[in-house]
Amino acid sequence: MKHCAGQIKYLIAIKELSETDEYVKCVSISRYLDVSRPSVSKMLRCLANSGLVYEDFCNSVVLTPEGEKTVAEIFSTYNEVYTFFHKFLKLTPEDAHSQAITFITAFPHDTCERLKHIVKRTIKKKSE
User: Global pTM?
Assistant: First the structure.
């Protein structure tokens, strides 16, 4: 999975907004990420060109099947990193959320995968 930090942040935002809103609008993404609407349009064009969102994102932003697959991959890592920050480091859910996103967008994919496996192994050992 080779996506830039901005793409990952936008894909996470689209996924999280779609869980609470029927239609994900550009203005919603703008507010959620605290970025300008032109920045949202530019990134959505990039995501559309990459085949991750459908071209007609003016009315509502919808992930393509490839976008859904990419988001699932992102969240499989995000969930473990979030668990590390929240359960192991005892950060609040909000802080764990923002720091998990920062971690998965700033650190190499291999490092995220290694942390993910350590968290899974540790949780498995605790449950035995």
Answer: 0.87
